[in-house]
Amino acid sequence: MFYRPEDGHDLPHNPFNAIVSPRPIGWISTRGSDGADNLAPYSFFNAVAYVPPQVMFSSTSAKPDRGDTKDSLAQIRDTGVFCVNIVEYAARDAMNATSAPFPAGTDEFIEAGIEKMQCETIDCARVASAPANLECKLTKIVELPGAANFAVFGEVTGVHIRDNCLVDGIFDVLTFNPLSRMGYRDYTVVREKFALNRPGE
What we know:
By secondary structure, the chain is mainly β. The chain has one domain: Pnp Oxidase, Chain A, CATH 2.30.110. Helices cover 11% and strands 35% of the residues. It contains four helices and 14 strands. It has helices at residues 16-19, 71-79, 92-97, 108-111, and strands at residues 23-24, 26-31, 37-42, 45-49, 54-59, 81-86, 116-118, 125-127, 132-143, 150-161, 166-167, 170-171, 179-181, 187-189. The strands form four sheets. A seven-stranded antiparallel beta sheet has the order 3-2-6-9-10-5-4, covered by helices on one side. The N and C termini lie far apart (40 Å). 30% of the residues are buried. This is Flavin reductase (DIM6/NTAB) family NADH-FMN oxidoreductase RutF.
């Protein structure tokens, strides 16, 4: 089949998210200037540069109590920092619990029973048990076409790696099995890996 998104797809559900999958999940923690912590998952997330290391995530909806966006972006606008917490399979239920539309000012760490720790380079909380945490300083917010669509870019200023995820000096994803988002209500988990050498290597 072929369809133009502007004309609709005539399917029971939008296939776009299922086509672009699997996608890593950025579990974004933020802290407002009032000290309120927030934690929410975003599946439009990825790393975008090596030097300096940079990441991005996109927020694509809004809440009535946050105007044109959601809690995460509202607090990032306020403070200029955020932390990306890597989601392991074991944390799937806790991650999902933090996706609920809580009122502004709700601490999802508390609601989902997640232990938090203070970041080192920014004033923000992080998921204490995560395989890795990326402390980030905001570099740019890009308003995208469409209502409430914003891409958030940040430079990584601090990296936490859980000790048991390092095997012979390698950050081994098979020690924790990353959770990834697919389409609809579907997720997948990384349980195997293989290597490919680039031509000429």
